[in-house]
Amino acid sequence: MLATRLSRLLSQLPGKTLSMYDREHGARRPLLFCSASFIPVSRTYAGEVDPVGSKAVLVTGCDSGFGFSLAKHLHSKGFLVFAGCLMKDKGHDGVQQLDSLNSDRLRTIQLNVCSSEEVDKAVELVRSSLKDPEKGMWGLVNNAGISTFGEVEFTSMETYKEVADVNLWGLVRTTKSFLPLIRRAKGRVVNIGSMLGRMANPARSAYCITKFGVEAFSDCLRYEMHPLGVKVSVVEPGNFIAATSLYSPESIRATAKKLWDGLPDIVRNDYGKKYFDEKIAKVENYCNSGSTDMTPVIDAITHALTAATPYTRYHPMDYYWWVRMQIMTHLPGAISDKIYIH
Ligand SMILES: NC(=O)c1ccc[n+]([C@@H]2O[C@H](COP(=O)([O-])OP(=O)(O)OC[C@H]3O[C@@H](n4cnc5c(N)ncnc54)[C@H](OP(=O)(O)O)[C@@H]3O)[C@@H](O)[C@H]2O)c1
Fold it and tell me: Can you give the residue ranges of every domain in the chain?
């Protein structure tokens, strides 16, 4: 009864519907909550903020992957782009490619999100590059991230901390440091989460807990920033590993060796090498099965930065993962575990 009333109320609110991203048509497909079912309905994007010409955006993790492509894409849209690169000082290939554009609207900067010193320097550099620092900076895209795999018993405390240092604490640090500039512009914060920040997966605990943390942090920030005119969005990509450098066959092999060599004897003996190798084969399979086209992710981030009414969450992922995420997050664990985990 309550659910039906709530559904009716929700379906009468334009722009307040649950929605997913349609990569083919560049449009959102809102899902109206009708009684017990979700019905996909087409809707086009909201109007965009205009013009982007003078707007400054900082993206973290631009050496490769989403960050690298996004920096180039935002530059092509007319933004002033500050591309934070972990390896600028070491002359990373991606950094050289961005620098070779020779544009005064695309500046690579050395930025390790785990270093307060480097983050502070980045804030100063951006502030001093703005025409009018009192008008602030339009956008921050927290994209830098690392990943790993391994069952809970296979994963060392050092690994848990290492992944959280970049994906969670690095994101929190960078956000806090840039907020004074973002607030002045009534701008945007776009956090790159993951579908694994909504639903967990076996052998991914070190990564999942950081991405669940990103979701919680983003929600709190969105609530707090709303009265100040700053909009906060989370982009939750599905499996695009084949399109980025998050994993490579070499890094999987290296991580597997490190895991096995570092296991306590009791864990190694209890699970055995056969079990371990089967799990690694599953990871390899997952990494080879993702989408090779990262356009949906780049489009979602761009929408979050430019639309007058950006969405709270974006779901650039294929239908298999989207359906799985709905089932994992809406059905009782006893059912969803049976379907997808056991
Ligand atoms: N690919 C996917 O399927 C997928 C799915 C969901 C979410 N994501 C998220 O998307 C984001 C981008 O990942 P990606 O897939 O594009 O992988 P990627 O190609 O490995 O890009 C990640 C970038 O972050 C940089 N980075 C790592 N540690 C850093 C640090 N301490 N400070 C600053 N930058 C750092 C990396 O630099 P180096 O290259 O120099 O190491 C790299 O440029 C991550 O947050 C990831 O969790 C990816």
Answer: 1-44, 49-341
- Does the beta carbon of 276 sit less than 6 angstroms from any atom of ligand 1? no
* pTM assigned to the model: 0.88
Q: Is the CB of 197 under 6 A from ligand 1?
A: no
Is residue 213 within 6 Å of ligand 1 at its C-beta?
Answer: no
Among 207, 247, 311, 314, the one annotated catalytic: 207
Using alpha carbons only, give the angle 326, 327, 331 rounded to the nearest 5 degrees.
120
pLDDT tens for 240-297 read: 999 998 888 899 999 999 999 999 999 999 999 999 999 999 999 988 889 999 999 9
What's the rounded Cα separation, in Å, for the pair 128 and 116? 18
What tokens were used for 106? 């695309």
CA 149, 151, 152, 154: dihedral to nearest 10 degrees? -90
Cβ atoms of 153 and 202 within 8 Å: the answer is no
Omega prior to 40 cis, within 30 of 0: no
CATH hierarchy code of domain 49-341:
3.40.50.720
Cβ neighbours for 116, distance < 8 A, ≥ 6 positions apart: 173
Tokens found for residue 302: 């761009």
Whole-number Å distance, alpha carbon 50 to ligand 1 midpoint, is: 29
DSSP notation for 129-146: HSS-GGG---EEEE----
49: tokens are 């903020």
**Strand partners of residue 83:** 59, 108
Query: First-to-last CA distance in the chain?
Result: 34
207 is known as an active-site residue: yes
Token code pair at residue 120:
């502070």
Q: At what angle do helices 65-76 and 295-306 cross, to 10 degrees?
A: 50
